[in-house]
Design brief:
The protein has 167 residues and is mainly alpha-helical. The chain is built from 6 helices and 2 strands.
Length: 167
């Protein structure tokens, strides 16, 4: 159990250290080794990027857990084993998955907006040529499927990626 806890703690802090560099704080560059060294764990843990990412990851874990509960309940219900127990468990899993899915989407949107404000150059690099930054892309599943088919056909024809048509 101790090894498992150590693994997850190390992974969590490595994630904070590596992915916290989207908005670097609490470090200095060592003039001898030319490497970044952590100088303030408090600055790292209270970084605005971390404060936006942590709830997103936390809620996503509930989304995964709810999905696992749904799958286990569905398996037991399909086998008609202990339906009195697994029917309410299935409902609980569905409720948790729905709530966590919505919350994960909202926190992901907030995190993306924060990234846009902190690193506007990353946003500009994602906008295809000929499209404005306000364009929302295809407005329906059918339009998105048509765009995908157009790009795939161009790829197969050896023309490279087709430029999406606005509208």
């Amino acid at each position: 159990m101790e090894g498992l806890l150590a693994f997850f703690m190390e992974s969590a802090f490595l994630g904070l250290w590596i992915f916290g560099w989207k908005q670097p704080v609490g470090y200095r560059v060592n003039p001898v080794t030319h490497r970044a060294q952590l100088t303030s764990i408090v600055a790292l843990l209270t970084n605005s990027t971390v404060l936006a990412a942590w709830p997103h990851v936390f809620l996503a874990s509930f989304l995964v857990a709810g999905t696992v509960v749904i799958a286990a309940s569905a398996w037991h219900l399909a086998r008609s084993s202990d339906t009195a127990l697994f029917r309410p468990v299935m409902r609980l899993g569905l409720a948790v998955t729905l709530a966590a899915g919505i919350a994960t989407a909202v926190t992901g949107d907030l995190q993306a907006r924060l990234m846009d404000s902190q690193q506007p150059s990353r946003r500009r690099s994602r906008i295809p040529p000929g499209r404005s930054s306000r364009s929302t892309g295809p407005r329906s599943v059918a339009a998105a499927a048509g765009l995908y088919r157009q790009m795939w056909r161009a790829h197969l024809a050896g023309q490279g990626a087709a430029r999406p048509v606005a509208g």
